[in-house]
Amino acid sequence: MKFSILQQDLLPALQAAARSAGARTSLPVLENILLSLEGENLKIAATNLEIGVMKFIAVKKTSPGELTIPAKLLLEVVAGLGPVEVELESNNEILTVASGRFKATLNGIAAAEFPAIPLGDGKGINLPKEVLLGCGQILFAAAVDEGRPVLTGVLTEIKEEKIDFVATDGFRLAHRQVKLALSDGERSRTRAEGFKSLIPRRTFEELLRVIGEDEAETVSISPSQNQNQIVFSVGKTVVSSRLIEGSFPAWEKIIPGQIVTRALVDKEELVRALKLAAVFGRNEANIVVLSSGENKLTLASSVKEIGSQENEVEAQIEGDSLQVAFNTRFLQDAVSASPASQLMIEFSGVLQPALIKPMGEEGLEYIVMPVRLS
Predict the structure, then answer these.
(1) For the ranges 47-56, 161-170, 220-229, 310-319, which has the lowest average pLDDT?
(2) Number of separate domains in the chain
(3) CA angle, 188 as apex, 182 and 194 as ends, to 5°?
(4) pTM of the predicted protein model
(5) Strand, helix or coil for residue 10
(6) CATH code at 129?
(7) I need a labelling partner for 50 at 20 to 30 A (CA). Which of 206, 276, 334, 349 fits?
(8) In terms of domains, do 312 and 352 share one?
(9) Which of 348, 362, 192, 151 lies closest to 260 in space, CA to CA?
(10) Residue 103 lies in a domain
């Protein structure tokens, strides 16, 4: 393998792929980046067996071949060169990196030991990138703890030309629904085969980075040929991920039905009030108590060892007066994630979940479970 490329073109591609390289793994090849050259197209790939990233870039002065090189080492060498033309050449399992008066040899591992990264089955659905970028508003609600793997994923389902994204950790839920303009082929395919996947939160986080780095306006989503992986194509980048197996909770049943009180509040004012409440709620339960009154929401929190606070937020109140306790952090996460300047908070009762709707953001809603006060 032999090729030359500008450092400023190679470095971003290496950085994007290297994020998915395995760290401290029992398989040393997973700590490596695969460089594979066919014609004038260089494939740069990395995987940790959960997420795989492939980037394709044009190079010149080429000779075919492939090799894997430690990701961190290759990144440090290329980053240190600055904006110059770089020539890379492999001989057996050694890569030579040369530019001007600089020359280095890097020990690699044969490409044959690198695991295959799945490709799509060709039955992709094309979505505007904004549809997926909006998932950044709900990812916080997915669980981080691997104790219940299904809760670490984001349910992604297409039906009736709408796509639903749902994340929950059992204590709060975030739901985003977007209407789609599918082609005739995509419409018939989703009706016949359905589209329902449980995609890891970490995959969405990586996908959002890739979309932000690429100029492509659309993202293609397709299952892999063996059906247990999902593949996203963004411009000249491919992100593949394993799917989570298991049954996602029946989230529709969690959405409150009968509403007894509504409060329309300013988001930023509520964010500030919740931050202050959190200062006096730093105990195991981390509780803030919301009380509705005439044209106001009152937020109260206390810790015996520290003290207490009470704060009033201006609000338009409809319905009954009530007092509900929440985990401060869960409520704060939902309010902070909202892209709207005003929020409608709907209460179903003292021990019922609250529904938070960003005003003017159709299809986006947050649910926070209450805390029972002793």
Answers:
(1) 220-229
(2) 3
(3) 90
(4) 0.90
(5) helix
(6) 3.10.150.10
(7) 334
(8) yes
(9) 348
(10) yes
